[in-house]
Amino acid sequence: MTGPVRLAVLCGSAATPSSTERLLRRAAAHAESLGARVDFFAGERLRLPLYGTPGAASDSAVLDLVTSVAAADGLLVGSPCYHGSVSGLLKNAFDHLEELRDRSAPYLDGRAVGCLVVGQGAQGPANALRALRDIVHALRGWPTPLGVTVDGPPLRAPADCELEVRLELVARQVVAFAEARRAVTGGVGRDVAAVSRSA
Q1: Computed from CA positions of residues 13, 115, 117, 31, in that sequence, does the dihedral angle turn out positive or negative?
Q2: 111 φ/ψ sector (left φ>0, alpha ψ -120 to 50, else beta)
Q3: Quick check: is 198 in a domain?
Q4: How many Cβ atoms sit within 10 Å of the Cβ of residue 30?
Q5: C-alpha–C-alpha distance, residues 80 and 155, integer Å
Q6: Residue among 122, 59, 121, 52 nearest 91 (CA)
Q7: What is the tens place of the pLDDT at every residue in 124-174?
Q8: d(CA 84, CA 101)
Q9: What would the pLDDT profile of 39-81 be if each residue is shown by its tens digit?
Q10: 193 belongs to a structural domain
Q11: Phi, psi (deg, nearest 5) at residue 95
Q12: Which residues pair with 117 in a beta bridge?
C-alpha cells in the first residue's frame, strides 16, 4: 500500500467551533506535519440520522463517514464530557460503524485510535476517556498508549506547551502505528472501497 497514511478524525461536539474541535484540529495538524492525510468530521458532517432509523444506512452523510473510516489507517477521536461519558453525537457515529461488520477488517479492526476528551474537573473527563477507550476496544480498535484529557477550554494561551506536547505525541502514536502496520501487512485489511456511495 502506497501513499500517505489516511486518518479519519471524529469530533463529538455539536457546537462548531468548539473546545473539542480546536483540540482535535491541533492534533490533526501534527498528524499532517508527519505526512498523514486527514478527513475531518465535525459539525454538520457528524450530525447523522439516529442509528436504527429506517433508511439511515443509505443516508449520504452516513455513507461518507463509513467510507472514510473503512479507508482509514487510523483515527483521532474527541468528545466533550457529558455526565461522565462521551457525547450522544459521537456514540451515534460509532453505532453507524455497524455497517462495517462484514468487511475484511470489520469496524476499527487493527487500527490505532487516539482518544481526546474535554470537560470540567478531573473526574468527568477521566471517566469519559475510559468510556471512549472501551468503545474503541469493542470496535476492535487499538487506543493509543496516550489518551488526552483537558480540564476546561483547551489552548487558551499559545504558551500551553505541555498540552501541545501531548497532542503531538498522540498524533505521532497514531501515525507511527499506522505506518508500522502497513509495513507488516502491506495495507491488507484497509477496505478502501468499503461502501458504495451510490447505495
Answers
A1: negative
A2: beta
A3: no
A4: 20
A5: 15
A6: 52
A7: 999 999 999 999 999 999 999 999 999 876 555 444 788 999 999 999 999
A8: 28
A9: 999 999 999 999 999 999 999 999 999 999 999 999 999 999 9
A10: no
A11: -60, -35
A12: 79, 149
| Domain count within the chain | 1
* Dist CA 99 CA 64 (whole Å): 12
Domain CATH code at residue 92: 3.40.50.360
- Cα separation, 50 vs 64, in Å, equals 15
Residue-number span of the structural domain to which 102 is assigned: 6-185
Residue labelled with grid coordinates 461536539: 13
Alpha-carbon distance of 147 to 25, in angstroms, equals 16
* Dihedral sign of CA atoms 171, 11, 135, 58 in order: negative
Grid cell at residue 193: 472501497
DSSP 191: -
Q: In 3-state terms, what secondary structure has residue 65?
A: helix
Q: How far apart are the first and last CA of the chain?
A: 26
Is 34 a domain residue? yes
- Is there a domain that residue 66 lies in? yes
Q: Inform me whether the pLDDT recorded for 176 exceeds 70.
A: yes
Query: What's the pLDDT at 1?
Result: 57
Query: Percent of the chain scored above 90 by pLDDT?
Result: 79
Instruction: Record the cell numbers describing residue 14, joined without a space.
Output: 455539536
Cell triple for residue 75? 483515527
Q: How many residues does the chain have?
A: 199
